User: Fold these one by one.
Assistant:
Number 1:
Amino acid sequence: MPDTVRVPLGDRSYDVVVGSSLLGNCAESIGEVLGKPRLFVLFDEAVALPWAQQVMDSLSTAGFAFDHVSVPSGEKSKSVAEISRLWEMMAQRAFTRDTTLVAVGGGVIGDLGGFLAGSYLRGIPFVQIPTTLLAMVDSSVGGKTGINLQAGKNLVGAFWQPALVLADIDTLSTLPIEEFRSGMAEVIKYGVIRDPDLFSWLEQLGPNPAAADLTRIVHRSVQIKAEVVSGDERETTGLRAILNFGHTLGHAIEAEGAYSAFRHGEAIAIGMVAASLLALKRETGWSSDDHSRLEKLLKQSELPTSLPKGYSARRLIDRTRVDKKAVSGQVRYILPTSLGSVKFVKGVDENAVLSVLHEIGAAPE
Ligand SMILES: NC(=O)c1ccc[n+]([C@@H]2O[C@H](COP(=O)([O-])OP(=O)(O)OC[C@H]3O[C@@H](n4cnc5c(N)ncnc54)[C@H](O)[C@@H]3O)[C@@H](O)[C@H]2O)c1
Ligand SMILES: [Zn+2]
């Protein structure tokens, strides 16, 4: 039986269904929520077979009218050029407001497809069918959509909630192991910010969870993300910022590695270790035992916990100042206070950050 998490957002509320064999029955699930609209199915070229095919077979059998288009894999598809190609294609094919867009793929397709749906004819409904662990536990829930500019990642976009999310665990069977691990970093993050039981359970599970455990992992992560975003849909009250634990320095590390040295989750793993060390220095209540457990769990999940040679502490700090989540030039850190809770800290002493970065392997200058 699939598990469903309701994301309560008033008239924008929706269900995230987590389970196995969901793709083969997706027409039924879509039909229950949206009736029988014309569909535009967007899929990552890497998931054409068997996943996108299963979606299309289910839609054909149920008699849905749909067009489909394959999008090249990778971050470069979150671009003005790609969305422009898709806008034009939708207009040429005379898609009207009663169309629903279906995005099948990882966070790239979800973010691009979500923004396409949010902007075409000022907004049409969309369905997310995430096929990476990261997309299941993070990007498909919460309504942030967008594309990148030359000047930086995710600089153009909109909040546009999906009408339904179908997270089919089976799709993870073809996901490259590095991508899986990268998604696990976000799961571990949820344990630290919100759920000590999830954290302890991950410690016991080991690096290769079985399908039933994966369903539980995704389900619990989605519940946490849903709780947080429903309390702060548009990042105005501050609650949503707790999702940024490990991300202030993580984003700097990703950017400093030109987005090719590390996957997102790998950079976040190192960022979480750095934030954990900062919490020890600031005496937030976080203990050295908590720190060791976090480091051990990341290692057990085969994620990096320190920087390779060649990263300058100074340059990383400079990068945190231009992070788009810095407010009025103030860098904000989310620091753990105990397993399952974090606090928001502004004005962290730069020397403390420098010293932590040295501890995790950054060069002095
Ligand atoms: N909207 C949000 O709230 C939010 C949150 C976090 C991240 N993001 C965005 O998500 C993106 C990263 O998402 P991602 O990690 O899913 O990356 P991705 O979409 O690039 O997918 C990773 C790789 O896995 C491949 N792939 C996807 N599913 C597969 C499957 N089932 N089998 C085999 N290969 C598969 C893809 O082709 C790609 O090469 C970034 O652009 C990031 O900005 C958005
Ligand atoms: Zn993240």
Note: Residues 211-230 form the longest helix (20 residues).
Number 2:
Amino acid sequence: MINKVKSLIFFFLSPFVVKRLKSQSVFLTFDDGPHPENTQKIINILKHFNVKASFFLSGKEMDKYPHIVKELYDSGNTLCYHSYYHDHAKEKSFSSFYDELKKVSEYEKNIGVKFKKFYRPPYGELTVSTLTLLIILRWKVLLWSVDSRDSFDEENEVLQNVNSSNVSAGDILLFHDDYDKTVRLLPVLLERYHQSGISCDKL
Ligand SMILES: [Zn+2]
């Protein structure tokens, strides 16, 4: 009984999200953008299929392409954070990571957008100090339940990794903005999901 209570408390208070249990949809998430060409193409494909997705943006890239961040937000997609430098957690000091997280409110003010306080650590890595700071500043650590492996696999394999039989309601799917193959396969995937009655949502 005690263990059950403990695991329930952990479940509700845990800063980690890997799957949205109450949803009937799957969640497409794109890391490492904004990318100067691909992100715009992804926005157009999502619009065409009337689908919204979530984008885990890198601060360094947002500095270069703020207009794409604005466009992502204006087209109804969810903006989330993927660090400033895309470096390893062990390279971040408590205060440098604090500065990185604080930059998000500058982006909100300067670009005129709103972020959801979902942080996806680069390489999925956290240290005691980065996790502590995320908890103090009330960020949720948003991971994924299905990796498309678009960083590693060929186009057809990626489609196979996320095909309708490999995903179920509530799954959070990991993709990246910066691979051309992801842009090419996205319409094929969305058409297949549509045919199989799988709906996609933003976080
Ligand atoms: Zn990344």
Note: Residues 31-32, 82, 86, 122 surround zinc ion (CB under 6 Å).
